[in-house]
Design goal:
By secondary structure, the protein is α/β, with parallel strands linked by helices. The chain is built from 7 helices and 8 strands, in the order E-H-E-E-E-H-E-H-H-E-E-H-H-E-H. It has one domain: Rossmann fold. Strand 3 and strand 4 form a beta hairpin.
Length: about 180
């Protein structure tokens, strides 16, 4: 099956996952910025970093899709705990908006945990994270979720949740 791994990465974690997945499967990988046509493939595996509720490059990539018989696998990478159903449900709502109902329903969806290095964030992302931090700081402690508390604890630090073993579930779905 002619396949391609495409990734949208801002700070490198998603690219690292895509590169490792490429090594594990022998499927070439490329940044979404370098993709002009995806319709010659039978299978597209898209890995995208989560930023402000959207998946980097996802909409641009899937707007190129002209055929409906291409097998699509979408993998999100973010700092939220992906074992928490509430988190993955929120991600899925965003994915459906970006992909459209038809592609979303016919895609296999996976979620991976990435990381964050506040020292490498661009100005806008730093401001956004600062705003989130300060809004959480002003809430009563008992109203904070585990993810809220984790964000408070790790704010302005480097955190790495990358787990290449979690790619095995995707390798299985590709085969």
């Amino acid at each position: 099956m002619k396949s391609l791994i495409i990734y949208g990465s801002q700070y490198g974690t998603t690219k690292a996952y895509a590169t490792k997945l490429s090594e594990m499967t022998g499927i070439p990988c490329v940044s979404y910025e370098n993709v002009a046509d995806i319709n010659d493939y039978e299978q597209i595996i898209y890995l995208g970093g989560l930023y402000a509720g959207g998946v980097k490059g996802l909409k641009n990539t899937f707007s190129l899709l002209k055929k409906s018989n291409i097998k699509t696998i979408v993998v999100t990478v973010g700092i939220a705990d992906v074992s928490n159903k509430e988190n993955t449900d929120k991600i899925k709502v965003s994915l459906e908006k970006q992909l459209g109902d038809d592609i979303y329903k016919n895609s296999l969806i996976f979620h991976l945990r990435g990381g964050i290095d506040y020292g490498k964030l661009n100005f806008m992302h730093k401001i956004m994270m600062k705003m989130v931090y300060h809004s959480l700081k002003n809430k009563p402690v008992e109203s904070l979720t585990k993810d809220d508390k984790d964000l408070m604890e790790t704010y302005n630090k480097t955190v790495d949740f990358v787990d290449y073993a979690s790619l095995r579930q995707i390798v299985k779905a590709i085969q």
